[in-house]
UniProtKB/TrEMBL annotation:
Gene3D superfamilies: 3.90.950.10. GO terms for cellular component: cytoplasm. One of its GO terms (molecular function) is nucleoside triphosphate diphosphatase activity. Keywords: Hydrolase. It comes from Natronocalculus amylovorans. GO terms for biological process: nucleoside triphosphate catabolic process. Signal peptide: none annotated. Transmembrane segments: none annotated. This is Non-canonical purine NTP pyrophosphatase. Belongs to the HAM1 NTPase family.
């Protein structure tokens, strides 16, 4: 059984839409979220830690809202910003910007304790991202890293005044092609969302695993 390490029912529904209703289960585990300006190391570290806890194949994701004029902020700190100041204040800060371009980005990390043959090589330590994804943590030997396979997805949009009652998180202030994510049905959002795009790549690869 594949375990999606999340307590967010919306994420789990999205994963099941791509992987099958009975193919993935939710798993509640409070893995360590390391501090990083990039999503990849955060998701990879969580996947390794979650695999050690579960002992079976796991997927962990890290996602964020990246606002161009804020140099990508809040990015990996999106959940913290949402919890502390709320999405309405993010809109208030963004409203005066001449360019409110932004993107939702997601990185999905998979770990099952085994090695991967798929490219890019997940143990290529010459690459910063994949090295972070497979490097040994403080409690494991450098010679025995746990490989992690990464899948990314992104969708461009614009920050707007909150609209809509659906979705979760920043969905009400993120507009794509004239419609906020909160104004879309779950099916419409899943078809183009950043997480959906990462899940689609993962689902295609996972069929060969």
């Amino acid at each position: 059984m594949l375990h999606y390490v999340t307590t967010n029912d919306g994420k789990l529904r999205e994963a099941r839409a791509y992987l099958g209703e009975d193919a993935v289960s939710g798993y509640n585990f409070d893995y360590t979220e390391i501090q990083s300006h990039d999503l990849e190391p955060i998701a990879a570290y969580g996947a390794r830690e979650a695999y050690r806890q579960v002992g079976e194949p796991v997927i962990v994701d890290d996602a964020g809202l990246f606002i161009d004029e804020f140099d990508g902020f809040p990015g990996p700190y999106s959940a913290f910003v949402e919890d502390t100041i709320g999405i309405e204040r993010v809109w208030t800060l963004s409203e005066p910007l001449a360019d409110r371009s932004a993107s939702f980005r997601c990185v999905l990390a998979y770990c099952d304790g085994g090695a991967f043959k798929a490219s890019p090589d997940p143990i290529d330590r010459d690459d910063r991202v994949t090295a972070a994804a497979t490097g040994a943590t403080a409690d494991e030997e450098e010679s025995q890293p746990l490989p992690v396979k990464l899948f990314s997805g992104a969708v461009p949009g614009t920050i707007v005044e909150p609209r809509g009652s659906g979705g979760f998180g920043y969905d009400p202030i993120f507009e794509h092609d004239g419609t906020t994510f909160a104004e879309m049905t779950a099916e419409e959002k899943n078809a183009l969302s950043h997480r959906g795009r990462a899940l689609a790549k993962f689902a295609e690869w996972f069929e060969t695993r």
